[in-house]
Amino acid sequence: MPHPAQIVSSLADPDRLALYARVVAAGAGGAPEDLRAGGSGAVRHLRRLADAGLVREEGGRVVCVPGVFAAALEENAPAGRDPVDALFHQGRLTALPVRRELRRGVFARIAGRLFAPGVVYTEKQVNTAIRTCFDDPSSMRRYLVEEGYLTREADGSAYRVAAD
Questions:
Q1: pTM for the whole thing?
Q2: First CA to last CA across the chain, in angstroms?
Q3: Is the four-CA dihedral 108, 144, 112, 133 of positive or negative sign?
Q4: Predicted confidence (pLDDT) at residue 123 exceeds the cutoff of 90
Q5: What is the rounded distance in angstroms from the CA atom of residue 72 to the CA atom of residue 85?
Q6: For the chain, which end, N or C, has fewer CB atoms within 10 Å of the first or last residue's CB respectively?
Q7: How far is CA 148 from CA 14, 43, 68, in A?
Q8: φ, ψ dihedrals at 13, nearest 5°
Q9: Is residue 140 packed enough to be buried (19+ CB in 10 Å), middle (13-18) or exposed (0-12)?
């Protein structure tokens, strides 16, 4: 299966894109052989589209291969992507997940990125750090303490990363 970049680059040429559009517009019956009437340029363009898996020849007609896009993306999908990554956009948490294991992953990510072990933080410092990635610092601070990622002095004057 061709790489998505190969598919895109094969459609980057305006003449090749127009030729592909004619094949797609022809539908399931396929475009007639007269596509090659454009000379050696058309033959070259068709070969490039076929190499990218976008078209194939069936019984003297050229047909498009619609599943090539999904197959290329699926085959080249990043392996083992952390589902917690999908909850962040440009470094900010977009939604707090309901599933406990994802929530714990979010809390671990935030605590690990924002707070260093052995350092004592004031409530104001914790809130400022949390605001860099989440809009409600008081609730996130509470979650981090309740879930055991941060510890808090009884009077709320100091916070630390919890010992493992």
A1: 0.52
A2: 46
A3: positive
A4: yes
A5: 22
A6: C
A7: 58, 66, 47
A8: -80, 130
A9: buried
Say if strands 92-93 and 55-58 run parallel, antiparallel, or are unpaired.
unpaired
Question: Which residues on adjacent β-strands are paired with residue 151?
Answer: 160
Neighbours of 150 (CB within 10 A): 22
**Cβ contact 46:19 at 8 Å:** yes
Site of tokens 């399931």: 28
Here the tokens at position 137 are 């610092």
Q: Give pLDDT tens digits for 132-144.
A: 999 999 999 999 9
- Is residue 87 within 8 A of residue 43, CB to CB? The reply is no
pLDDT of residue 163: 85
Which secondary-structure segment (H or E) carries 120? Answer: none
Residues 16, 62 contacting (CB under 8 angstroms): no
Nearest alpha carbon to residue 111 among 155, 152, 81, 83: 152
Residues 83, 116 contacting (CB under 8 angstroms): no
Tens digit of each residue's pLDDT (9 = 90 or more) over 35-92: 666 677 888 888 899 888 898 888 778 888 888 888 877 777 666 678 898 898 888 9
Contact 84, 109 (CB under 8 A): yes
Tokens representing 67? 């599943």
